[in-house]
Design goal:
320 residues; mainly alpha; MetI-like fold; two-stranded antiparallel ribbon; 2 strands; 68% helix; elongated
């Protein structure tokens, strides 16, 4: 029988003892123990997990740092933050990351930008997973006309230009703009990829013996889809969910860079990079682009390394 979610979390019981029962020269390990053994041996995955935890801590600590340094994220210090030509001044004193084009503290705004990016990416990923997993299981299990409708709808969504739709919706003030608009745009274009992966896995699982056994005892279709097949999809869903979070962070930054959704005075990395571009292009205010760009790079790198590590640790073919 295929591996279920309860097996992964608790591990199968061993005859004559618990999960640690020993045979001649062999120590039994639960799937969870095997996963953790593989994962902790992957130094890049552990490093990625550290980066993710670090950036989450930075995001949560933004209000604390703001109160300690005494620089509100939207406060403009034009008298000390910009020169006579209106260009940002470099790091100095308590402004260790320097100033932006409006004389605001880049350190505080970069930390608040982490809150915005992580919130949007995680929420959008959750929405994508819910929609994509539901429609993917439905299409793969039901097949026939249901699969045809879902598949053609996916093709329709993927044919729509991502950035053009975002710009058009921002002009119409759809959902009031801001974070809600960006979450909608990212989730709207993201769920089809998840649905395709889940559909393919479901097409394979529906032919498994445990599904036939569930049919033989009279289990309803809904029970089989969400109590038998879904638990066997948790590993690929977890892996793919971790890997699309950095994609959504980059997507949020791209939309903010174009002025879609996040507006002043709210801090967003893409917005900060857009404001810094004219100065950096002239060879000025390198700090204005460096710190939000570095924060974006660290966050995306951390989630990518963590996702790759989870994929390797959950893959039974790894053989370690």
């Amino acid at each position: 029988m295929a591996q279920s979610a309860s097996d992964f979390l608790q591990g199968p019981s061993q005859p004559g003892g618990g999960p640690e029962a020993e045979g001649p020269g062999v120590v039994a390990r639960t799937p969870r123990q095997l996963f953790w053994r593989r994962f902790k041996e992957d130094r890049l995955a552990l490093f990625g997990g550290f980066l993710v935890v670090f950036m989450i801590t930075v995001a949560l600590a933004a209000p604390v740092v703001e109160s300690i340094v005494g620089h509100p994220y939207d406060e403009q210090y034009r008298d000390i933050g910009t020169n006579a030509f209106g260009s940002p001044n470099p790091p100095t004193g308590s402004f260790i990351f320097g100033f932006d084009d409006l004389g605001r503290d880049i350190l505080v705004r970069t930390m608040y930008g982490a809150r915005v990016s992580l919130t949007i990416a995680i929420v959008a990923t959750g929405v994508e997973l819910v929609i994509g997993v539901f429609l993917g299981i439905l299409a793969g299990f039901m097949r026939g006309w249901v699969d045809t409708i879902v598949s053609r709808f996916i093709d329709l969504i993927l044919s729509i230009p991502f950035l053009l739709l975002g710009i058009a919706l921002s002009v119409t003030d759809f959902l009031g703009g801001g974070e809600k608009l960006i979450i909608f745009i990212i989730a709207f274009f993201g769920w089809p990829y998840i649905a395709r992966i889940v559909r393919g896995q479901t097409l394979s699982l529906r032919e498994a013996q445990f599904v036939e056994a569930a049919y033989s005892v009279g289990a309803p279709t809904r029970w089989i889809m969400f109590r038998e097949i879904l638990p066997n999809l948790l590993a690929p869903i977890l892996i793919y969910g971790t890997l699309i979070i950095p994609q959504n962070i980059v997507g949020e930054a791209a939309l903010s860079f174009l002025g879609v959704g996040i507006q002043q005075p709210t801090a967003a990395w893409g917005q900060m990079l857009a404001a810094a571009t004219p100065y950096v292009a002239l060879g000025k205010a390198w700090w204005f682009m460096l710190y939000p760009g570095l924060a974006l790079f660290i966050t995306v790198l951390g989630f990518n390394l963590l996702g790759d590590g989870l994929r390797d640790a959950l893959d039974p073919k790894t053989g370690r």
